[in-house]
Design goal:
single chain; two-stranded parallel ribbon; 8 helices; 6 strands
Length: about 230
Amino acid sequence: VAILNAPPVPRYNLCGGPLIGANGSAACISAMLAHLKASSPGPRLLLINDLPADGLVWRALEDMASDGRIRISVISRWERAMLERSAFPEAPSYLAATLSSSSRKRLRSKRRSLEGDGALTLIAHTGASIDAAFETFLRLEVSGWKGRAGTALSQKPDESAYVGKVLQAMAVANRAFVLEMRSGEKALASGLFLRCGGEASFWKTAYDAAQARYSPGVILDMMVTEWLYDQPW
């Protein structure tokens, strides 16, 4: 079977559908597949990676499958967690709805254990301070299981350089942040965030592996949620 791969997209582009006009999606996808069919005689299989399952491209493919022009096989499907502020107007109401009282009590105890060098604070780095904050993120990430598995960013110089350049470019307009959770001056967890308009994406997270039993990553998530609610955008 001839396998045709959709054009590759950057590794960190998690929305790999082609850019097409909203009113021309069906005609565009139909023409693309017709071109592939004409240029590849015999059995054909088109492999499309990282295709949003609720977008125009997917709906156009579904329409073609419903009238028998193509057949779709989904290899794997996954979802990303998303918080819509309109569903919960305040951070405390969201956290109360998503964490049981026993979980909140347990996390408060863990938070106290993390405060050995001082109260926990969340520092938002952007602009000129983002480079140093990214270096701290890399140090935290390589200290844990990703470092042991050889998949930490600092172990992949090309990818690390790419991510660093993205952060630098977007931080100029306050569209990239490194949110760092500290106890006193000690960094315990860190997250990379990208912003577009009124939406923020939690790109990557890392934490001090020596403090793993106290769930620094989860506590960072909670503090970040509160921080996001405070942002005017």
